[in-house]
Amino acid sequence: MSIERELEQGKLAPVYVVAGADELTKRELVAHISTAALRNSPKELNETRLLWRETSANSIVDLCRTFPMMGDRRLVVVGGVEKAKAKDLKPIAEYFDDPTPTSTLVLHSTSTDQLRLKVMKLAAKIGHVVKCDVPYANRLPGWIQQRARNKRVRIDPDACSLLADIVGADLAALDEALERLILFTSNGGNQTQITLKDVETSVARTRVHTVFELTDALGRRQTADALQIMASMLDAREAPIGILAMVARHIRRLWQANDALRRGESENAVGKSLRVHQFFLRDFLRQARMFNDRELARLLERIYQTDRALKSSRASAELHMQQLVLDICVR
User: Fold this and answer.
1) What is the CATH number of domain 206-329?
2) How far apart are CA 111 and CA 81, in angstroms?
3) What does the angle CA 229 – CA 285 – CA 289 come to, to the nearest 5 degrees?
4) Which of 12, 26, 110, 217 is geometrically suited to a Cys-Cys bond with 225, CB 3.0 to 4.6 A?
């Protein structure tokens, strides 16, 4: 039986561990658990939400041992558990030997690394441990199709593919884009099918186009333009590591395209092998022809150095990103 079905039937486990990079699925599952756990209990009296860095394992256990007030169940939700060390989790492991039947503990983490710990294996014996990984790129269209089905909406396969190319693996952003498409295509409350044209017309392509514009500016060594584009991305609250990952992926794909074209592959074959949607293929191949192998190798090396600096240096992320642009553009 699925966790969702158990929750609908009011079957609550003592503990749920929800781990992984897929924030949308984690958020929805925690919300579902919260609704089920507090169905017959006042939320303001029986729900406690904490961050690991602000509490301790002993405090969490004390909360779980506390009986619910004016209700059936107490809910304790702890985020940021990826920061916890195995020794710090020992009191929670001991609690799992005799959990309070009127409490539900939810531990959520951005990483699945800790699922190898003994405490998580104990959690799996008495409750549920759920991995929430972001789907691989080739599975995103299927995820969109299923998500649309859950919303009782039909969407063409080509529209799913283009939407995945535009938005990427941010499932929350994909869901938001899908909601905008539903509003865009609704006809007096009657839902029609979402087509490729609907996606081209209504979904903002800023994210993809901005990466194209940034790599264009870097390739042409247009320093002022590249700095301005980078600043606008940071102002839009794009995470520096995320921008770097997007650019690195784009550069690697340009390298692959460059190599394939040099070997005589057709443009359509290159687009198909690299899963570049036809809508973007012309611009993508134009960029691939702007670079040579030596330039692409240097770009990737600078991206790697910047990644290390972002994760280890005390200097601001904006400064590192600006320096990357300058190192690439200024000969």
Assistant:
1) 1.20.272.10
2) 9
3) 85
4) 217
Sheet of 47-51: strands edge to edge?
47-51, 74-79, 103-109, 15-19, 128-131
- pLDDT one digit per residue (tens) for the chain, 331 residues: 588 888 888 888 999 999 888 888 899 999 999 999 999 888 889 999 999 888 899 999 999 999 999 989 999 999 988 888 888 899 999 999 999 999 999 999 888 887 788 888 888 899 899 998 888 888 899 999 999 998 889 999 988 988 887 777 788 888 888 988 888 887 655 667 888 888 877 775 556 667 778 888 887 788 899 899 888 888 877 778 878 887 888 888 889 999 999 899 999 899 888 878 777 788 888 888 888 888 888 888 998 899 888 888 888 888 999 998 988 887 6
* Residues 133/152, Cβ–Cβ less than 8 Å: no
DSSP, res 240:
H
Containing 109, the helix (H) or strand (E) segment is strand 103-109
Does pTM top 0.90 for this prediction? no
CATH architecture of 137-201: Orthogonal Bundle (1.10)
